[in-house]
Amino acid sequence: MQSQSQPQAQTLSQAQSQAQASSQASKLFKSPVLVGLGVFAATLLSVVVAFTVYLTRASAADTAPASYGAYVVPTGAGAVDGVVGVVDDGPPPFTFQTLLNEVGLTAAELSALPRPAVDGFLPAGLDRSTPDDLLPLAATPKFNLTPGAAYPGGEPVLALEMFTNMVVEPIAARWTVTGQADGWVRVVVPVGRGALPSEDVDLVNHHAVWVPEDSVRVSAELNRVEISLTDRRAVVFYGLEELGSFHVGIGRIGSADTPTGLCSVVGRAVIQTGEEALLTSCQSEVLDEYYASGWSTIALHEGTGFSLTTGGAVSAGCIRIPHASFAEFLDHLPTGTPIIILP
Could you tell me the fold of the domain covering 223-342? Predict the structure, then answer.
């Protein structure tokens, strides 16, 4: 029995020794070798990423100029080395003096031009706009005063203000666009009339002027409200999408009719009843004034006194809107939103 167990013990001892030696070798191998391999792999990856970024940037620099604020930094031939943000081949910035030079006026002459007011009258001979002229654009003035002409390139006959005087409070201007031609933009005059309704009803509304395109910032205007006097219904659009429709109150037929045509939202107000209102560029073509105010602005305002299912002819010319509909569809509309009033 002893002679048989001794070789077995020796064999077991040898196996344990070999296992221990293999384990130690494995530990020795794993520790420095794997760590070294990890470092090498990480280094190689960093080099690859850095080289890729370098190639990407180099390619972009060859194909597109860099942006720096309002300027474009030229690259390649003609670039100014070591000077950031300097442009030697672009147009100069459009300044107020550039505007004066373009229209041939001094600052004093521009300031002396008539300025539209809600209770004032506009110069004769201005251009006119219809719903068919409407473009999905709005124009925001860059300067305190913007010259307006009766036709593109014409002599300025009035000055539009950056803040429209709506009697209630000055309101930041944003104008409805109805035409573009030869570096000029046609915009709806926000306030004023060509004549009193009692003098010449055809001259009351829908006046427009041409302003230099460089004097305004032109942006998209997708909001639009269409009102049918026959159906006594308003439809609110965003682009081609109809957001909602509802019945409204309109002017009393035969005594205080609501005017038709293209109007523009020119401000907001709270009317005498405490209800919210959007003021428009149009005024009554029946009444010379409301309540001895000297003006008769058509407004879209919250109101009652008409059927929510059929509408009604109940107002002095304004469009009365159900309270819930005003809050949902009209309360957010910006200045410059076109209002089209159809027969």
Answer: L,D-transpeptidase catalytic domain-like (2.40.440)
